[in-house]
Amino acid sequence: MPTDYALYLRKSRADLEAEVHGEGDTLARHEHILMELAKSRALPIGAIYREIVSGERIANRPVMQQLLAEVEDGRWKGVLVTETSRLARGDTIDQGIVAQAFKLSGTLIVTPSKIYDPTQVRVGKYGTICKYHCTKYYVNLQPRRLQKMIDEKGRLFGKLNIVDLLVILVVLVAVVVLGVKFLGKDGGGGINPGKTQVTYTVLVKGVEQEVYDNIQKYIPGQLMASGEMLDGQVVSVEPRAHEQTVTVDTTDGTLEIPVDEGTIDLLFTIECNVVNPITTEIGTQEVRVGKTHTVKTDKFELMNGVILDCEWGDGAAAADAQ
């Protein structure tokens, strides 16, 4: 079981601009802040990682690649950063790589304002998780190999211009998407032309009690999207206690305190018939476990729900067998 912590220091674009205007060395300032934080919390520091370059992607940051590899190996109990965005910026894939590496190894992320335990909660904006092999790919990626693939004229392997390649890929993706949608509507290409019954549940959190009281009047209610009635309905709604906590920093660490917001969670059960049991589209939404879902009828609408469970009828089994 690891006991030591590591520091990771990286400059942002804003930091580089600030240094030009005389703000001082960012890495030195951040190192001082994190060392004081470690001292106040009695956290043993085993290594300090200083990212000299300011790369957009993990593939362009060798120090981050090394740190991620050690995190995956379970070398560190936690990593100290001034803020979580220092680990990965806005790129969704990079955020997923970081989140998965820390989650699988149980490595803590420690900032001056909060300690994140990725095995217990979703780590803020790093909730989008990439497959485990994505991490291996980026950690082992060698930029020099990419430079050999693309010559000085921007041609892949000296034959195909990289811009032309991107255009071709975009066209191919568009053709595939249109083909899937066309087959889904017409029932061709081996997909069951009949309709398949689908039953699923949607959890909507933090709903006012008065809203729930009024919704009960309109259950069952027919589904609706883009001004059209759909072949499905909300058959039931079940209230649940809404759990909300606030994180408070104490001298002994962080403390999760339950908070009563006066709201409830609602669990909707929905039944519908879909033409294509593969894409499972109802209106403009796909039904998948874990997807964000809007529960909408001609009488009420609740957004930002999450699909918890989904059951497909016999039509889905027939489609899988073809």
Structural class: alpha+beta
Helical segment count: 9
Helix content: 25-40%
DSSP, total strands: 17
Measured between the Cα atoms of the first and last residue, the distance is 50 Å
- Low-pLDDT stretches are 123-148, 186-192, 317-322
What do you see in this structure?
The chain is of the alpha+beta class and 322 residues long. 33% of the residues lie in helices and 32% in strands. Strands 9-10-13-8-17-16 form a 6-stranded antiparallel beta sheet. A 5-stranded mixed beta sheet has the order 2-1-3-4-5, with helices on both faces. The protein has a two-stranded antiparallel ribbon with strand order 6-7. A hairpin with a 3-residue loop joins strand 6 (155-156) and strand 7. Helix 3 (62-72) runs parallel beside helix 4 (92-105), helix 3 (62-72) crosses helix 5 and helix 4 crosses helix 5 (132-140). The radius of gyration is 25 Å and the shape is extended. Residues 123-148, 186-192 and 317-322 have low confidence and may be disordered.
